[in-house]
Design a protein that fits this description.
The structure is a single chain. This protein has helices at 18-21, 38-47, 96-110, 145-152, 156-169, 185-195, 218-228, 242-245, 256-264, 266-271, 307-317, 332-336; strands spanning 30-35, 52-58, 65-74, 77-82, 88-93, 121-127, 130-136, 174-178, 200-204, 233-238, 273-279, 296-301. With 354 residues, the chain is of the alpha/beta class. The longest helix has 15 residues, at 96-110.
Length: 354
């Protein structure tokens, strides 16, 4: 009788390595896993060039990045190194002693552990049904509390504290940030990333790739991320999500059921994800299911600033700013950034009346 063998490791390599790892089909298997970084992956590849038996690389972006590097130390001893934002190592050996020995060797090759990573977020990508993420750390500096109060109101530190407590104590759920464009929703998310890096991991999913919520790789991807960051809350940020969250009788909201299931369904309880969405439309345009108590755990309204409040923000930044209309309300964006496009003045008509 013919039999077939499929070997899938925790790192979800599908069929790429099943032929190599089939040596463990009828023999003992002992695994040791640990995280590394891109420099560590380069170091292992350089140190063990003669041990490299298979590599996979991603050339979709502006650079070529390691996806998988397979090192073979014996017929049944492997070190599987995964990069491209995942950055982890899996040692497979026939005995616990050999697994521990390879772990010591890997630690020696990697040298002193890297310093704690700088605060940042992970940009999620969906390529041909496969999910991956790229680390982004070039964030603006952390603002002081006085500046946050001037921009968002005196209660903003307490609101961020409440968000932290809620997401730490409750699995899943939604946070909704709503307000006109330019009122600082993205800036506040950035400050939360800088402040909560010890307890939360932030992932940004572009709205154009929101189909990832219904991808076949969605659950395996987040299972891997939960294993890598088991001690931190996973937060998925979707900006300008107006079309995704509209009432389900509108066009463009087919992904909403999948998002609801992730945030508050049975799948969400397993994946332990919290979803943060920012919108520019009024709340009554949204599907009522989003606003249901118990699902919507946090909400923040962002408004335009009065002229006096805008002047205080500008003074704090030591910037010159003058309101063209003292009675108008102003976006935070026009105060923080230099105006590039000037509004044309009305043309004067010169001529004679008939």
């Amino acid at each position: 009788m013919n039999t077939s063998l499929t070997f899938v490791t925790k790192l979800h390599y599908h069929d790429k390595l099943s032929d190599l790892l089939s040596v463990f089909a009828m023999s003992p298997l002992h695994v040791v896993e640990f995280n590394t970084d891109e420099k560590g992956i380069d170091r292992l590849h350089e140190r063990y060039r003669d041990r490299v038996c298979r590599t996979f690389r991603d050339a979709n972006g502006g650079r070529v990045a390691w996806t998988v590097v397979v090192l073979r130390f014996a017929e049944n001893e492997f070190v599987l190194v995964r990069g491209n934002g995942c950055n982890d190592v899996e040692i497979l050996a026939p005995t616990q002693e050999r697994a521990d020995a390879l772990l010591l060797e890997m630690r020696d090759a990697l040298g002193t552990p890297s310093q704690a990573e700088a605060p940042g977020f992970n940009m999620v990508r969906l390529d041909c049904g496969d999910l991956s993420c790229d680390r982004v750390e070039n964030l603006p500096p952390r603002c002081d509390e006085e500046f946050l109060r001037l921009c968002y109101g005196d209660d903003i530190p307490e609101w961020v504290g409440s968000f932290t407590e809620t997401t730490l104590s409750r699995t899943g759920g939604f946070t909704l940030l709503d307000g006109p464009p330019g009122t600082g929703k993205t800036s506040l998310i950035t400050q939360m990333i800088l402040r909560l890096s010890a307890t939360h991991v932030f992932y940004v999913l572009p709205v154009a790739q929101a189909g990832a919520f219904a991808s076949a790789d969605f659950i395996p991807f987040w299972q891997r991320e939960n294993a890598r960051h088991s001690d931190r809350v996973k937060v998925v940020v979707v900006e300008d999500a107006d079309k995704l969250l509209r009432r389900r009788n509108d066009d463009g909201c087919g992904i909403l059921p999948a998002m609801l299931n992730v945030a508050d369904g049975l799948a969400g309880r397993m994946l332990r994800l919290h979803v943060v969405c920012s919108i520019n439309c009024p709340l009554d345009h949204l599907d009522p299911a989003i606003l249901r108590p118990g699902r919507l755990l946090n909400h923040r309204r962002f408004d335009l600033l009065s002229t006096s409040s805008a002047r205080r923000v500008a003074r704090h930044l030591k910037r010159e700013w003058t309101a063209t209309d003292p009675h108008a309300r102003h976006s935070l964006a026009e105060i923080l950034n230099k105006t590039v496009l000037m509004k044309p003045e009305p043309k004067r008509i010169v001529g004679f009346a008939a």
